[in-house]
Amino acid sequence: MRIKKLILNNIGSYFGETIFSFDIEDLNKNIVLIGGRNGAGKTTLFESIRLCLYGYKLYGYRQNSQVYINKIKRLINDSAKKNNSAIASIDMQILIEDGYANNKFDIQRKWILEGKVVKEEYSVYKDGDLLDAEELQDFDNFLLQIIPPALFNFHFFDGENISQFLFDKVNGYTFRKAFMQLCGLDTLDLIEEQLQNNIRPQKSEENIDVQDKYQSVKAEYQIARELLEKNVENLSLVQLDIENLKDEIVSLDKKMSFFGGIDESEWRSYQEKLKVEELNREELRRFLKETANDVLPFIILKNELIKLKEQINIESKINKNKLLKDKLFDQKIRKTLNLNLRSYLKASVYDLDNSFFDILYAAMKENEEDNSSEILNLSENEQRTLLTKIDSYLDFDIIKINEAERGIRSSLKNAKSIRSKIDSKEVINSEDYLNQKNNLLLKLELNHKKQYDLQLEQMKLENNLKIVEQKYQKAYEQFKIMLKAKSVTNMSARTLLAFNELKQNLYMKYVTLVERAFSKNFNQLISKTDLLDGIYISDSFEVIAYKEIDIDIKNVRHQIKEFGDEHMQEILGERAWQLIIKEDKNSGFIKVPAKVEQHFSAGERQIFIMALYQALTEIRTVELPFVIDTPLARIDSEHRKNILTCFFARLPGQVIILSTDEEISKDGLSVLQDKISNIYLIKHQIKGMSMVKENTYFNKEVYN
Fold this sequence. Notes:
It is built from 22 helices and 17 strands. By secondary structure, it is an alpha+beta fold.
């Protein structure tokens, strides 16, 4: 798919009609460069491309959603609004060479503002012919097939926020879908499911039980995944609402550019008080977030912690009894006790041996636990350490969470009271502003609460998915054993086994391609040679950055004993863990790809993602355009030339770049010159208008 033309009419800072030609005749000149300083209208252009393709689906809302309508209202050019009415539109011409072979489509979205009502009109022309309702639905479905939502952030991204696509946990599940769709494995999943449905178990009760259990656990696993993905989707929508509300507040503040009737010092005093309340709420939210991440999982497992504490105490008592027994059998100690106790108890040696020690042994035996109760076998220091941790979790006062939530509500109430005081001052022309802002801030706080609740729910769903996934893997292995036994006589079983092997081989092929390409790309882009050695994609589709290190087997096994398998697997990473558990020696050093904590700088994170994106282009089956806003905002001057030469100049297919003069300077322009087909400069004019000049890049004219 290629974008040939974009026409904006009264969109954002673009008053009237503005035309951009993105057509490329030569694939060797595949870059369209659009320059503009901050605030000129580049981001509006970026959003317009996305909005024209997907409309309300872009934001995950219904067509008549109030949030979507408000966003469109803000998008309509202010100068075009007369008596609170206006017409705005985005027209885009695209060429699709796959599926609809070499067909040209004209996509038109028009918005009519009348008072507070916004009406949207959507139409598509195929080679000049208007599509009817059914054809339009088919086109929308087809568009979602060639560039589904999972791939959207991969092809249309903002350089400032690019790292969120992978480094935010919320988007890890999106990456899995993107990867599977890029290499076509999502289709293989559907084929596999169909083949499994055709497998009928032999009449043996054992085979029926195995298949029934597999199908049951599989359904449970799918439900667990769907619940998590739905939660992730809801969380994304809430986060989008938060960003939209922040945008509305910023927009509202810009319109309210005066203090009105309030004295400036008094106004600043109120603002300081509001700031204190905001800081207070932020601190409370941070406490709730940290609690959710660090403490709450163990509070949820309170009964198990109590059982563990009881077991530690039992084993501590056993160890003490064993120690005392050993000491009492020591003749020197018995002699010392005899000498010191005889006079005190006024007893003979015989009486001591036959009374005191008998009583002592009996008391020990009575309190002694069965040795079979020894499960943990911890040292005294290990027992103490673990008990301290358990007590800290058990002693955590859950009321603190409720207090923090009450504190947020109280702070909101105080903030509302302060804003009411401002309002009571009869501020000139500001009553509506204050009411609007107060409502927006209240909505923002409610969404922050929703965000916290969804994050907490996500943590629970992730833990549940891990448990169900383990059950699923076990049932799947048993199912495969049954298939192997049946494959001698059953063609469907043989087919499914062969297909599973093919799918796994293809998956490993694509994973290996991406991992190798990443290492090559990253080394070309980054100046630091010791940051990491490469990446690998785990079975759960987590992208792991790693370094090859030598580790002490003995020390690791000790840490495993102290902290547990899951904790050490999380710390070291999946592949390092697999090498460790396969190692049959208990001492010495082995080399493993240890997980690198991704505490990269903003620029390093962007380079990391760019290297991965470039690697992913090697496995994609459909050519799609890249539209990139603020491409080098977080990149220092040392790395910019590398990225221009080794990333942008090498991206396949159509590439549309929206840049400031600081990101791609005169020197950067010369690097890309041979790859540029079209170039524009967006200039910010008086009254907030944007003017577009073709074949111009800041103070330099460029002729193609």
